[in-house]
């Protein structure tokens, strides 16, 4: 298996940790990377991304976890050095462990529909996790160990790549295809369903994984021909741009300038960290490309099309009305392809 290392805790406690991690690996026609940044080093509420691959069965999983800091601000755990961590911090990391256990269990059981087992691992580990600290924070918005989850499980076979996206909350999974670009594979658990409106409003979530209330996992799947790119990201990556298209612009611009997967991860981190207002996590796998050069070249024409369409170019000196008009025009042309593989809106 290919499993990224967790950041070390050097002497001196979490405040001495770097506020970011990048990692990459290549195995034949699989190339993968993760990017993880913390707004406040040592206290970021995104868990480290998961990127795991099982060579004998060509099965892999990518996943990200964003602890919900507003509803999970209560203290939950105190480390050996006395540092206190929030319920959101702990919840994201418990969900990461549960997802990794689920993936390994699904390999051993070889069951096609393993989603109930993911729910089982999440509920079991969340209920077993410490939530010990007392808090003055009460009310209907409070949650115990709250976190989002976005995962994409994939399996390579002779005809291409079978994928299943699983999620709860507003973290997302995507496909990045050489001809048609970025496609969302999940739909946020919010009442607002329009991705541009979600950028403008940051609507509250209607469903989040937690230990004290019921939650649901959604799933959606399909097939892609190789080569393709799959990824999962928290809103620190896609929630601080002007339009959904600009997230694709960040992916393609950094890919075009990168020398290899490790360099791409570093460029992504340096592009997003100064711009985002949040912790940010991304887990990505490129499937079916014969080396990084072929991966980069496969998206050259798509990148040129995106630039020609004006998606990266915010009008200089635009006031609020002009900016809003530009957003709506570019979103109107970009939206049909972006939503092509999304699940239907749930009633």
Strand and helix layout:
Elements lengths: L19 E8 L2 E8 L12 E5 L4 E6 L10 E4 L5 E3 H23 L5 H14 L20 E9 L2 E9 L3 E6 L3 E4 L10 H7 L16 E7 L3 E6 L1 H4 L5 H14 L3 H12 L7 E8 L4 H7 L1 H9 L11 H19 L9
Antiparallel strand pairs: 1-2, 2-13, 3-4, 4-7, 5-6, 7-8, 8-11, 9-10, 9-12, 12-13
Helix pairs in contact: 1-2, 5-6, 5-8
Q: Which structural traits does this protein have?
A:
about 30% helix; five-stranded antiparallel beta sheet; globular; 13 strands; Phosphatase 2c, domain 1; about 350 residues
Characterise the protein shown here:
There is one protein chain. By secondary structure, this protein is an alpha+beta fold. The protein has a single domain, classed as PPM-type phosphatase domain (Phosphatase 2c, domain 1), CATH 3.60.40.10. Helix content is 31%, strand content 24%. The chain is built from 9 helices and 13 strands. It has helices spanning 87-109, 115-128, 195-201, 235-238, 244-257, 261-272, 292-298, 300-308, 320-338; strands at residues 20-27, 30-37, 50-54, 59-64, 75-78, 84-86, 149-157, 160-168, 172-177, 181-184, 218-224, 228-233, 280-287. Helix 1 packs across helix 2 and helix 5 (244-257) packs across helix 8. The longest helix is centred in the N-terminal third of the chain and has 23 residues, at 87-109. The termini are far apart. The model is unreliable at 1-5, 7-14 and 133-137 (pLDDT under 50).
């Amino acid at each position: 298996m290919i499993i990224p290392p967790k950041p070390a805790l050097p002497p001196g406690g979490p405040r001495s940790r770097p506020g970011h991690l990048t990692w990459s690996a290549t195995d034949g026609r699989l190339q993968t990377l993760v990017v993880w940044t913390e707004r406040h080093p040592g206290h970021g509420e995104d868990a480290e991304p998961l990127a795991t691959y099982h060579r004998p069965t060509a099965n892999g999983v990518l996943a990200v976890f964003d602890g919900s800091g507003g509803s999970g601000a209560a203290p939950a755990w105190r480390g050996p050095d006395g540092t206190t961590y929030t319920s959101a911090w702990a919840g994201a990391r418990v969900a990461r462990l549960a997802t990794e256990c689920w993936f390994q269990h699904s390999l051993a059981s070889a069951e096609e529909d393993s989603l109930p087992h993911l729910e089982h691992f999440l509920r079991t580990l969340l209920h077993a996790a410490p939530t010990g600290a007392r808090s003055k924070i009460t009310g209907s918005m409070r949650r115990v160990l709250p976190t989002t989850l976005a995962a994409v499980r994939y399996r390579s076979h002779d005809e291409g790549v079978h994928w299943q996206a699983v999620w709860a909350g507003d973290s997302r999974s995507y496909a990045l295809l050489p001809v048609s670009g970025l496609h969302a594979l999940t739909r946020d658990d919010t009442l607002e369903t329009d991705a541009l409106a979600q950028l403008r409003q940051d609507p509250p979530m209607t469903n989040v994984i937690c230990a004290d209330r019921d939650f649901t996992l959604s799933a959606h799947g399909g097939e892609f021909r190789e080569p393709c790119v799959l990824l999962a990201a928290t809103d620190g990556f896609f929630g601080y741009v002007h339009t959904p298209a600009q997230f694709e612009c960040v992916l393609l611009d950094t890919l075009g300038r990168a020398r290899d997967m490790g360099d791409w991860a570093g460029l992504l981190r340096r592009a997003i960290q100064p711009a985002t207002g949040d912790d940010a996590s991304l887990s990505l796998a490129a499937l079916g490309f014969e080396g990084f050069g072929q991966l980069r070249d496969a998206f050259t024409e798509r990148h040129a099309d995106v630039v020609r369409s004006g998606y990266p170019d915010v009008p200089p000196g635009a006031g609020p009305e002009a900016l809003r008009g530009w957003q709506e025009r570019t979103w109107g042309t970009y939206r049909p392809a972006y939503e092509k593989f999304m699940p239907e809106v749930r009633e």
